[in-house]
Amino acid sequence: MSAAWAMVRHRFASFAGTFVAVFLGVAVVAGSATLYLSSRPQAPARYDQAPVLVTPPDPGTGDDRDRRAWTAEEAAGLAARLGAVPGVAAAVPDPWFYVQRVEAGRPAGDPQAALVDGHAWSSAVLGGYRLTSGRAPAAPGEVALGGTAAGPATPGAAAPGKTSPDKTTQSMTTTDDQTAGGTTPGKTAPGKTTPSRTTPSRTTADDRVSSGATSGKAAPGGATAGGTATAGKTGAGTTIEVLTSAGPETWTVTGTVDGPGFYLADEEARKRASGVHVIGMTVTGDVPRVAGDARTVIGAEGVVRSGAERDALEPVSVTRIRWLGAQLLIALVMLGTFATVFVVASTCALSAAQRRRELGLLRAVGATPGQVRRLMYAETTLIAVFAGLIGAPAGAAAAPLLAEPMVRFGLEPAGFTVTRQPVALAGAVLLGLVVALFGVTAAARRASRIPPLDALREAAVDPRPMTPVRWVAGVLGAAAGGALLAGMSSFPLESQVTVGLGAAMLLLTAAALLSPVLIGPLVRAVAGPWRGTATGMLVREGTLTGVRRVASTAAPVLATVGLTMLLAGMVATIEVAAGFDETAKYPEANVLVPDGTPGLSTAAVTAQGAEPALTTRLLLTHGDVTTGGSATGGGDGLVLDRLTAAQLQAEAGDTVTVRFVDGAVTALPVSRIGDEVGLPRELVRQHDPDALTSIVVLEDPAVPVIGARALPVHDFVMEEVEEEGRLVDLFLLALIGLTAGYTAIAVGNTLLMATAARRTEFRALRLAGAGTGQVLRVVSAEALLAVATGAVLGGLVAVVSLAGVRAAVENEIGRDIALVVPWGTAAVVTGVCVVLAVLSTAVPVLRRAG
Amino acid sequence: MTNHETPAVELRAAARTFGSGERSVTALDRVDARFEPGTFTAVMGPSGSGKSTLLHCAAGLDRVTSGEVIIDGVPLGGLSERALTRLRRSRVGFVFQSFNLVPALTAAQNVALPLRLAGRRPQRGEVATMLAEVGLDGREGHRPPELSGGQQQRVAIARALVSRPAVLFADEPTGALDAASGAGVLRLLRAAVDRHRQTIVMVTHDPVAAATADRVVFLADGRVVGELPGMVGAERIALHTARLEAVTR
Ligand SMILES: Nc1ncnc2c1ncn2[C@@H]1O[C@H](COP(=O)(O)OP(=O)(O)OP(=O)(O)O)[C@@H](O)[C@H]1O
Ligand SMILES: [Mg+2]
């Protein structure tokens, strides 16, 4: 180990490649993992004062979207029994429903969050919210208004200086400057402990509208706006305009509350909500004991959650946002790891080749092959640990900087904060070490076979650029990558990008391994015309005897050009396909779609002379099989689709038990088997009063209504595609930025290493009469050759992979689409590599000369 | 002369050919040679006559194509790469013409290297004594680039001798040095033989250097073609060499 330390200290420059690769890799992984682990599910803030929560039992269909509810009566009964448990101060059902404030004729705030903004007044106690003025609501049409805007006591709390940048976005949805930043309840409730995520936005409890065309996808632009971005001086006695699932309403404010939400009289809330999903308990006694007693009381009728189990109540919409963010972070970790292995392997191979003489000397002096191998591992361990110990904190320090953009782009929920994640850091350091050791394996094995006599050979000539192992690994990699591409259409659509990336990584590795085969012919072809000149001869012979060196320097170029072209081309191809795909489904007509709302209210639909196409979720039981599914209101009886019918083994005429979202259970005969699950509209409305319509196809010109807009189908589809494309573009940018940045650094790095190690060679050249200019020409030409090799191979891999992606997409949509090869991107990336390559070879040469 | 001691190194019909087919070169052609303990042998011969090859094969740095090499009673033939390395580490010292030292290590570290590779911690003063013996006391902390060519060569000799090998091989150790430094190195080698009964086999082109040896072995075209005692002096050795070169040409 001491020898390793001496080597590392002495020849740090030649280990710089490994160092930089591991440093960057560990930083990326540590940063991504810190973000990933910081993003934990968390119970909504409105249960802050309810350490024990009870939810209905899991329906057991294995689908997250299937949630059982209690009917209001069931919930009241259970709450009464739970309230009797010793140590329980109050057991309160929390029925919720859609309410959205209308300001200046437009729905305000985050539509997804608005889905759960309506509550029963009694549930305010679960968040510890109290009236700041006025009185509690008692009659229909009365509301206790939450949000800080309401209270006259609040304006002073939000001093302009304290307004953080993301709060400014919120203030845009308010009409009164004084209320800016007011949606974070903790700010205005001094003395009340603020958990890390108190912002009430994104507290959607169910994803019901996602089954329709207005998918429940994150509405990224609105991510920072609170659901109750209430405005104006709305003290007790004033009226407010709101939108509910029924349509526009005007309510009288009876009081103001120091937490977010709209609080209605209990009976009124009960009627509007589609069942009860949570009973919260405020507790005076010992929480675990109370939870235990509650479990005994409630038995199989509910699930009692305390402590960390409460966090399972995270709203689905928030989970979805975090899932999206996690996809990006996982991709970053994957690419970071790949780039590290790739770059470490090529720099280690290069540095081992450069140290042939030295390693031969060690062998001559008495080092066994095992000792040489261990020396290489020890050196790499030192470098990797050192790089990791610097890289991990660097990554962790960069992570919080990414939190804000991630929230802004809808990849993390509002209020997301980065916490310290020692495990992520330790893991990243360890990963860096393992990956570096993995990268050095091949080089170490090769080095240990250096014969001791190599210490006596002046110039290291690559005896065999291609070893059998290299051939086998290269061909296997190419085959595996090709197979993945060929079988791509059998993977689900969401994971096809990942599969494509995986295939590309395999192909890139294969290309790097096989590149020495290509270098010979390429050099002969390119250097051919200049064979007569000294430069031509030197370049030709220099590269032909140093094929491995050229391969090592070409590898990062290969990765940079290949990955960038592939990512850009893949997205372009998928976007082209997606655009066609969706347009084809829609007729030449106008549609009415939600505008700043999570769905269309009944009033908005009926105003058009149409019937609301209500969507709800059902739990269907036949025999001992239970399955969940979306159902549309509109038929004449219970209609099952073929899949559900098959699952339930039910036929027309059989009686099926239907559990509605409000918890009510009815037995209904199956009237027929159709294309989708359907129910009479009145039944849906009755049992899912909070249901919204996702989209209406219009026959006549649209009647303007609040919270809806009409547009041609084509435009709507384009918007949807663009929305999706925006996210994909974001992913793309992050991934390209990472890989291209990373590998581009490696390009400079390996060339710098390669050139610096050839000092003696250049000295000999100068002694033979070559001027600095000539030496420069030789090394630049060599560098350009390496870049050309890398670019050609990278381009080849990208085009092959893109062809694979295209085939998969064509298979998916059953139509031919054009192959999009991003030549522009390729040219730019190659150009950057050329500049980097020339700079990093010229600098060492000029420094020697100067 | 009867000697019942085991020879430090013995070559029996040792042959080494490079390449195969038409382009094959026979660098060593069934050479028999014995190097007795405590003797200093010089190997001379025209360029390309196989001197280096002989040394490499005898030192176990290279393997013979046929025949046998026995170091300190151990035949090298059946040894694995690992066992061979171990044997070399403990029984053989080697000094090259140049590039002898690991540039990353100090003089002391370079000298201690064979011991450390053998998994042994150098005893207190062991390395310093060795360096003092080659006249480099106080230079322990210097790295190769900070030492002159002659000093580097002396560090290399100290390193080759530190493990008290059965035999020390030196391939033109003075070849890259000026006359004064070369003489210093030769005095060192002679002293090792006289004081510690060190066995030394040295390849050289220099008749003066060869004259410091006990015995001079002449090689031509991969074969031993003659032998002179070192004490005959540089002139007679030079004469013999010149005659040999004329014959081979
Ligand atoms: N690795 C090798 N591959 C092929 N041929 C070799 C190799 N090493 C030596 N030879 C050939 O073997 C012969 C003997 O070489 P060797 O190096 O032993 O000569 P030498 O006597 O040491 O010459 P010099 O005095 O110039 O150092 C030469 O013809 C040389 O070309
Ligand atoms: Mg020689």
UniProtKB/TrEMBL annotation, chain A:
Domain of life: Bacteria
Keywords recorded for this protein, A-Z: Cell membrane, Membrane, Transmembrane, Transmembrane helix
Presence of the UniProt keyword NAD in the record: no
Intracellular or extracellular location(s): Cell membrane
InterPro entries: ABC3_permease_C, Macrolide_Exporter_MacB
Membrane topology category: Multi-pass membrane protein
Chain intervals with Low complexity compositional bias: 146-203, 210-234
Start and end residues of each ABC3 transporter permease C-terminal domain: 332-452, 736-848
Major location (coarse): membrane
TM region positions: 12-37, 328-353, 382-403, 423-444, 471-493, 499-523, 557-580, 730-754, 775-803, 823-846
Region spans: Disordered: 142-234
Keyword Membrane: yes
Family to which this protein belongs: Belongs to the ABC-4 integral membrane protein family.
Designated name of the protein: FtsX-like permease family protein
Organism encoding this protein: Actinoplanes sandaracinus
Taxonomy of the source species: Bacteria, Bacillati, Actinomycetota, Actinomycetes, Micromonosporales
Automatic annotation (TrEMBL), chain B:
InterPro entries reported in the protein's UniProt record: AAA+_ATPase (IPR003593), ABC_transporter-like_ATP-bd (IPR003439), ABC_transporter-like_CS (IPR017871), ABC_transpr_LolD-like (IPR015854), MacB-like_ATP-bd (IPR017911), P-loop_NTPase (IPR027417)
Domain (ABC transporter) ranges: 9-246
MF (Gene Ontology): ATP binding
UniProt superkingdom: Bacteria
Keyword GTP-binding in record: no
Keywords of the record: ATP-binding, Nucleotide-binding, Transport
Pfam families documented for this protein: ABC_tran
Name recorded for this polypeptide: ABC transporter ATP-binding protein
Phylogenetic classification of the source organism: Bacteria, Bacillati, Actinomycetota, Actinomycetes, Micromonosporales
